[in-house]
Specification:
Layout: E1 3-11, E2 23-33, E3 36-43, E4 46-53, E5 59-66, H1 69-78, E6 85-94, E7 97-104, E8 112-117, E9 131-134, H2 143-148, H3 154-158
Antiparallel strand pairs: 1-5, 1-8, 1-9, 2-3, 2-6, 3-4, 4-5, 6-7, 7-8
């Protein structure tokens, strides 16, 4: 069984930035239901089809399969619900763990989050100095929900 254990945080400043250009990702969803999301992702010259189960705590089932990039592009153009998620992903190592920092563009411009995959839900780690508040339990920050309710609309709905 493939299980993803991931914690997600906001990034509080730019001290994480480096000359590393990161990888530009485009991703969309073929389906988004409470207990299943099927995602198509294109990053650089690689592409994947990913099935994710319901999130329980900070864990969920995840199955990922490489697919031809041309087919991923066709799915993004013709089968996925807009808007397509556009982000640049940077990978950084801090205290032995790999952190993925996603800087969003398009409808989610201005949002920057950091994620870390763990071996166990209770695994301890040292937070990097640029790490902000944890949002693992806030479904607004799930990529699948950023399609339905993009970050650019959050402030509008609060007022």
């Amino acid at each position: 069984m493939a299980q993803e254990i991931e914690r997600k945080f906001l990034v509080k400043d730019d001290s994480w930035r480096s000359p590393n250009p990161g990888v530009l990702y485009r991703q969309g969803y073929l389906t988004r239901q409470p207990d299943l999301a099927i995602r198509v992702r294109l990053g650089g010259d690689r592409a994947w089809l990913t099935l994710k189960g319901a999130t329980v705590g900070v864990s969920r089932l995840e199955y990922e399969y490489a697919i031809p990039p041309g087919e991923a592009q066709e799915m993004l153009d013709n089968l996925c619900e807009p808007p397509i998620i556009e982000k640049r992903r940077y990978q950084l190592t801090y205290e032995g763990l790999t952190w993925e920092i996603d800087e969003f563009f398009g409808e989610n411009q201005g949002l920057i989050v950091a994620e870390v995959e763990l071996e166990a839900e209770e695994q301890a780690f040292t937070p990097p100095p640029w790490l902000g508040v944890e949002v693992s339990d806030d479904p607004r920050y799930y990529n699948a929900n950023l399609v339905r309710f993009p970050y650019s609309q959050w402030e509008e709905s609060a007022g």
